[in-house]
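Troubleshooting: if your tokenizer reports a length mismatch, compare against these two reference records.
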Amino acid sequence: MSRSTMSRSGCALCPRAVDFDSAWAALECGLRRVVVSPAVRGAPAVVEACPLMERVYECCTAAPAPYIAELHARLRAFFEAHTDQQFDVLRAHTSDLLEEYLRLWEAFAAGCEGCHRLFRYFNMHCVTKDTGGYCCGGVGGSPQAAPAMHDVVTIGLVAWKQRVYSKLRPHLIEATLDLVRADRDGDAVSLHPIARMVDCLVLLGSIRKNRELDLYQDDLEFPLLRDTVTYYTVESSQLIVHNGVTAYLARAESRIAEEYGRAKRLEQSSLSKLLKLLNTVCVEGHKNEISRECMTYLRDRNVDALGRAYRLLARIDDGFGAVLAATHGWIVTTARASVVAAAPGTADALPQRVVAALITARRDACSVVRGAFYDNPLFVAELDRACHAVANDPQLDGSPSRTPELLARYCDTLLRKGSNRTAAAAATADTLESKLEDRIAEVVSLFKYIDEKDVFLKFYSKLLARRLILGASVSDDAERSLIAGLKVFLHNILTHNLS
């Protein structure tokens, strides 16, 4: 096949007549070496590449008309013949089809990339990527039109997808899913083939512009997510029935962590979908059982189990409702029991016993909220509501709440000289001062829950005046520190006379 020579003026880049059959024979030989030979696949030497690239340029700028359509047809036929050969090899393979497929695919993909570089001029100037057609970009050429005109790497990918992957798809996808199932079952398998298969599907899917992930999502992601729901629905139900909630919490946490690591082999958009399904199956599906068991954990102060339950329930919307209510009830119940237990005894020591019981109950509750619930604002707010309910409960001793008076008398004992003689004998001044500051902070934290703050101020003012008149205050700094703390929850005018 030849075309008449156009007049030339010695310019090497000017259009000229080309014997296309001879040019293609040389190009086909080069393409075959790039695609087939392991020594040059994907990266032909410069000494080999330059003559081939020159041949491509000559065909694309030939006179009187370029051989663009012919090049495209020959390239398509070349890749179709090669992929047919690869399919025959895989069809005859009897063991570990997935591994052999990936080996041949990766070799083919590298070869396609090398061929693409050889046809750089064709790809850049003779293919209209936006429309799928092409135009002649050579010197003196005129635009031509042809449907479904692709660059070289796309021609190769289309051939592989249609003539190899599509025919083996069911076997390849099932083999990939079998690897995931085996890994979930604890078998010693390599997950690397999964990542390689994902790369294959994403690259083959890139043929469809703006819908690059459709092939991956339809062929692998959807079946994988479907398998995930089935697998964990069965496992989670059986584990709770046979091993209980406590064992299930630990198992669910480890399972989710495993899936997170496994999802790193998938396309990155799959991670959120996989975790959402896991949250639905492993947490939402068993939320009621987990929430009920949290009541037992609170009663036993099992912070580790509570923490696991919290971390799981935090993964779903509105996962804390029942646990918040249980936490409120537990704090109120334990605080009331502590106060009731502290009430019997001499009247003089009543303030110390009752207030100390309230402070201890709050401290214990804070420890659980911090250790198990990580000071989540919802749980901190529930802690405050429960403490407020106990501090203002008129039923604790069968009379209107005496907490404001008892707290004021507790402060008097705390800040009056001689009230801690036993402790003073065994501690240094620095230690006593540090402990005093801690106890003042605890008083302030309890004071904020009291509704009748004016009642507290009435008793506190009288007791403060008596300490000052008698010179019985343990420390002016301690008095100022407590008053400063009270001011946080009062208007300054109410504590101005205390200053």
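Reference record two:
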Amino acid sequence: MTVTLFAAVVISTLASSVYGYPRFQQEIPNGDKVPKPCETSTIWSGVGHLNQAGRGPLNPFGRDFQSNGLKWTSTVCQKDSDGDGLSNGQELGDPNCVWTPGQAPARTQNLTHPGFPERQC
């Protein structure tokens, strides 16, 4: 019984670590295309987290997104979470802050990460 319970907890934890963030990727423009800072050929799947794969502590963008109810709004879009001089919307391809889930963003290339300032590269 103990082994079965342990196995269930492990499987549940692994499943949540693999499937915990894709839902949030759909809540921001280009959420599944955000590049790793300083290594743009790699995707940063956990956009709002310090950990590239997600889970764990949030980065500045993740904290702003969370404090806004996990919704992409003009407030989050216009904010410069990482302090690099570009709004979150500019970094994620929604410079006019008009994107809504399910729509194509204005831009899908030349994206940058809204949680880490690229000037540190």
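Descriptive notes for reference record two:
- The longest strand covers residues 39-43.
- Residues 76 and 106 are 17 Å apart (CA to CA).
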